[in-house]
Every structure is written in C-alpha cells, then in structure tokens.
Amino acid sequence: MMNRRSIVVIATVAAILAAVIPLLSIAGYARHRAIQVETEHLKAYSGWTLQRAEQNFSQARHVFDMLEQDAWAACSPAHIARMRELTIDSQSVDEIGYFVDGQLACTSWGPVQQDIGIGVPSATLVDGYALYLHITPFVTGGAPLLAISRGDYNVLMKHERLVDVLTDTKMTLGLATLDGQLIAMSRKADGALSQALARGLADGHDQDLMYASAENTHFRAFAITDRSTAFDRMDQELLLLIPLGAGMSVILIGLVVWISRQHLSPQGALQLAIKRKAFVTHYQPIIELATGQCAGAEALVRWRQPDGSFVPPDMFIPLAERTGLIEPLTDLVIQRVVDDLASMLRREPSMHVAINIAACDMQSGRFLPVLSRALRGAGVAPTQVWLEATESGFMDVNAARATIDQARQAGHAIAIDDFGTGYSSLSLLQTLPLDALKIDKSFVDAIGTQAATSIVVPHIISMAHGLRFRIVAEGVETAAQEAYLREAGVQFVQGWLYSKALPLEAFLAFYKARNQRRTAPPPDTEATGLTPPPASPSAG
Asked: Model pTM?
C-alpha cells in the first residue's frame, strides 16, 4: 500500500492536472476561435470592399454604355456636352476622355490640343476593360487617378473611392486585379505582404499580422489587421470561461457576443453614438460680401470619438441615411444648434444659421414640428434658420413642395445645396418655391482658371438672379474668387479664405471679432436674406 505521503502527492498532482488541463484546453480553444472569428471578420470586409469597388465600376460601365448607344461626331460640342453631363451625374467618375487613333482628342471638359497617347494598360480585365493605375487628369492636373478604358473612351476616378468602406476596427483594406496589380489601399501597410495578397496569398497570419482576401470576376480584395486584435478577443473569452461554470459560460458568452456585435457593427456604433449624443456641431461662417460681416453660419455635424478624434461626416452620414438613423440624427443636430446659438440669435436678429436636411426628411417634412418646438422653446425666430437640402431632396417634387410650403409659411428660407453636382435641372428650380442657391465648391475652384467648369459659374449666377434667388458661394479660398463673386452680384460666401468650420466657442469669437470691424451700416432684412422674399415666378 502507498503511504499517506504518496497518496497526498498523487492527489496533489492529479488535482493540479485536473485544474491545468481544462485551463490549457480552454486557452487553446479560445486562441483557435479568436483567430477564426477575426479571419471571418477580415474576410467579410474583403467582400464588402469588392462590393464597393463593383459599385464604382458599374458607374463607369454605365457611362460607357450611355456614350456608345449614340453615334457622336467626334469631339463635337454635343459630344463634349454629353461627356460633361455624365461626369457631373456620376458620383464616381471625375473625368471622361475620348481617343482618336490612340491619341486623346477631347475630354468631358473640352478639346485637347496636347499630344497625349492612350499608353499601355497596367492590367486588362476579363471582359475587355483596360486599367491604367496612375493617370494625371488633363483638366485639374491633380493627384494621379485610376483610368478605366473601353473602346475609344476612358473614365478617371480616384483610387480611394474603391476602398472607402467604414470599418469597425482598425484595419487596412486593399484592392488588386486578378493578375496581382495593386490598385488601391485604404492606408499604408507592410509592402511585401500587400503585394503577396494582391497576387493571391491565402488567408492566414504571422507573428504580427492577420489577413484575409476575397475575389470576384474583376478584382481581388484583402484586409489586414494587427494580430493583437484577435488576442484581445481571446482574453475576453478567457475571462468569461474560467470563473464561470459551463452552463453560465454559454449564457454569458452568447450575451457578450450579441452585445459586441451590436457595438462593433458600423450601424450599431452609430446608433449607440446617437443614443449617447456623441455629436457636436461646428459652424462654418457665412460672410455677406456687401458689408464683409459674418451674417451667420452653416451648422455641420461631427461625430466625436472617446479619444477626442472625429469621424468624417462622409463616413457616417451615408450610413445614417441607409439605415434610417438620419432622422434621430437630424433631431439631435437641431437641438444642438438651438442649445448652442439660441442666446446669440436672440441678441443678433440679423444673424441666421443654416441646417442641412436629409433627402428623406425633405420628402416627409417630419422634422418641421421638431424644429418648431425647439425654436419656440428657445425664443428664436424661424426666419433666423435656413434649411438646406441637396438636389436629391427635391427629386420628388410634390412631396418636396409640401415640405417647402410648410417651412416657408413658418418663416424659414429654403436653399438648394451643392447645386450642379447632382441631377438638378432648370425645371426643378422653376417648379419649387426655393429662396437660395448654393454654388458648389467645385465650381468656385474653377474661377479664374482655364478649367472647362469655369464657364459654368456665370451661367449659374445669372440663372439664380433671374429666378430671384439669393446666392451663397461655397469653398471660397482666394481673394480673386471673392472679387469675382462680389462683381457678379453674389450676396454670401463661405470658405477657408474666411474660416474653416469652427467649434462653438471659436465661432462666437470669430463672429464678434469680424462684426466689430464693420464699416457699413447694418443691412436691411431683405439684403441679409432673413425673411423669404415674396412669391416670384420661380415659386411655381
């Protein structure tokens, strides 16, 4: 028989093994599962990157189809006008070129006199499209763009548009051709690994990084992240598995996975941010050219992260519109603006603030009672609040008219924002009772240049004057642009020549400093555009 000491030793060893083996098994499973989950996570984002690339590629395909369905006299005014129209209408295409005998003959902005050949493509897609990865645009001469060629046409687009997918963790997204040509990346990453993934490296991980990829008939996409992201998941699972029993572990892990998915998904993160009111408004000063005074501001929403950084609006506004979260976000912006500026607006009756309204809200008019209650409670006059909507908000003319009529009866001025970048038409402007037109920065940039868009600006201004619209020019950055706009009779301007969008306290200081220097008497109400003008022929 074993003595007592031997029994104690064996029992102790058995107890230790009984304790250690399950822990090692749990740790091994947690590590395997964490890597698997993160690989699936990366693979999902690779797929979404492919979808984003295909969306942009489809817009290019549509441009080719529209141009090739008609017989054009090469580089005729009608031909160039059609290319320009398609460029403006497309969200992805920055320029269209037409080639004759392999030489660039004209673009969507006009004829080309220089000797520019079509060159050798970087890659050829399976259905006959050719890719040129680093093409300098003829008109702007800006950063190199991606060119897609078919037949006698090519279209230029920004590389980053192909990978602009909102991610829920820090990762790098990349896109390549099926033969391994790297097209675009969302941020810098290990060069050798990126090239290997572009050439078809299988999903996996090394000492520092994890990666996964996906491909379709045109492209290969990949996602790269730090390996520590997977081990963070492993640590969370271990903390839950070890102290709890098997049954409770199953319940809690299910709950944690559900909560994590809600918080980590882009929609869940945005929904939580709205619930926590993690948004602030910055204010882009609006300057009245006649007096040089700050007449008001455009309210711009910013999503503030816990570390103090901000998510760009072009990353979360489209998500909010797609998921229906734009409505509570609009309500939050309205409340923020009223809370921020109510006191100042009551003191400064000549001041106004412009609030951007989403297309769905402009169609439904749902936000008007919300705005009315907020202004009434703060004692702010409705005439001091302008409502801005992009052209898509007016596409359903009947619905938009009902909202506009209600808003104008309440005293608000209505402005069409980013004019000329969407699907606007003269009939739209003539049909709806609008009050103001905002000239998009892309047109202001062309002032004083040889760009083809420079000829558009005087036509927009003349049309707005003819319709008795007040005019606001966006993106003014030079004194020459300001002088041109003043001479052309534009009433209001905004842009970095005066100030970038400012936090509340900085804007209040700017307004005070700017208006203390005024040399002209205060403009009357009609000049500042605080009260909608009487009905005109443009009011339909």
From this structure: 0.50
